[in-house]
Write a structure and sequence with these properties.
The chain is built from ten helices and ten strands. By secondary structure, the chain is an alpha/beta fold. α4 runs antiparallel to α5. The longest helix has 19 residues, at about 165-180.
C-alpha cells in the first residue's frame, strides 16, 4: 500500500506492507525507499514494514520551507496511528533516525543504524575530495557525472566488484541518485537538524541501538560506527565483512537476518 502523508508544506510518499510489530525503514541520502526492496520480504513476514521517501527523494516532492527529518518521521507514525515502532536508518537516514531517537525516544522500541554519519565529524581528505568533486559537477549542471561519482563512491567502490546483485539494483539506484541530486540544493537549504548538538550529547539516545558498519566502507564511517557503539548508552557494534556503504543493497539477505535477530529482542 502506498500513501501520501501530509507534512508541513509538503507530502511524503510512504509504502507499507506486512503485518506485525511495526518497523520504519529510513533510506540513505544516495537512494530512496527502493533501496530496501531486497530486505523487505523477509522483514514483512514478521513485521509491518513502513518505508517513507524523505523530502526530495523518490516520490516525495522537495521542500519549500524549513523542516526536520525527525519531525516528518513523527508525522508518519502519527498518520499510521502508531505509538511505538522500531526504526532502521541507513547512512544519512541513520543520522535522521538517531536524531529522532534523541528527541522522540519514547516512540521507539529499538534503533538500528547502518553506516550512519555524524554531524560535526572531522571528515577525511578522501571525503573532502568526494564532496568537492560532486559540488563541481552540480555547479556545471552535469548531474549525470555526479550520479556516476556517487555510484563509484558508495556502490561500486574500489574494494567491491560490480556483481550481479549490484547490477540488479544499479538502474534503480542511478535514478534515485539523479532525483536526489536534482533536489539537493533545496534539501540543503531547508532541512534543519532536530538535534544539532547530538555528537556532544549521545547520552540523549536511550533507545537500544545496533550500529552496523560495512568493513569495506570509507574509513570515516567505520570510525563513526565505533564511536557511536561505544558512547551510546545502550549501543552495540556489528561489523559486516565484505560489505560497503549500503548493506541492504549489497547483501540484502545478510542484512535482513541481522535486523530480524535484533528486532526480535525488542518486541513492540
Amino acid at each position: 500500500m502506498i500513501e501520501r502523508v501530509p507534512v508541513p508544506g509538503g507530502l511524503l510518499e510512504v509504502e507499507t506492507e506486512g503485518e506485525g510489530p511495526p518497523v520504519v525503514l529510513v533510506h540513505a541520502g544516495v537512494a530512496d525507499r527502493r533501496m530496501w526492496d531486497g530486505v523487505v520480504p523477509a522483514l514483512a513476514a514478521e513485521h509491518r514494514v513502513i518505508r517513507p521517501d524523505l523530502r526530495g527523494f523518490g516520490g516525495s516532492p522537495p521542500p519549500g520551507e524549513p523542516y526536520t527529518g525527525a519531525g516528518d518521521l513523527l508525522r508518519v507514525l502519527d498518520a499510521a496511528g502508531l505509538e511505538r515502532v522500531a526504526m532502521v536508518g541507513a547512512s544519512n537516514g541513520g543520522r535522521v533516525a538517531c536524531e529522532f531517537a534523541a528527541v522522540h525516544g519514547a516512540r521507539l522500541t529499538s534503533l538500528a543504524l547502518l553506516n550512519p554519519p555524524l554531524l560535526s565529524w572531522d571528515w577525511s581528505a578522501e571525503m573532502g575530495a568526494y564532496g568537492d568533486a560532486e559540488e563541481a559537477a552540480l555547479e556545471r549542471g552535469d548531474v549525470a557525472a555526479a550520479v556516476e561519482l556517487n555510484l563509484d563512491m558508495w556502490v561500486r567502490g574500489p574494494a567491491r566488484p560490480w556483481d550481479a546483485t549490484l547490477r540488479a539494483h544499479g538502474e534503480t539506484l542511478r535514478e534515485a541518485m539523479r532525483v536526489a541530486l536534482v533536489n539537493q540544493s533545496l534539501t540543503d537549504e531547508f532541512e534543519e537538524s532536530a538535534k544539532p548538538d547530538l555528537a556532544d550529547d549521545l547520552g540523549a539516545v536511550r533507545t537500544p541501538t545496533l550500529v552496523a558498519v560495512g568493513e569495506a566502507d570509507v574509513p570515516d564511517f567505520r570510525r563513526i560506527a565505533e564511536r557511536l557503539a561505544a558512547e551510546l548508552p545502550d549501543g552495540r557494534l556489528s561489523r559486516l565483512g565484505g560489505v560497503g556503504h549500503l548493506p541492504a543493497v549489497e547483501q540484502p539477505d545478510v542484512t535482513a537476518r541481522l535486523l530480524l535477530s535484533f528486532l526480535r529482542e525488542f518486541p513492540a
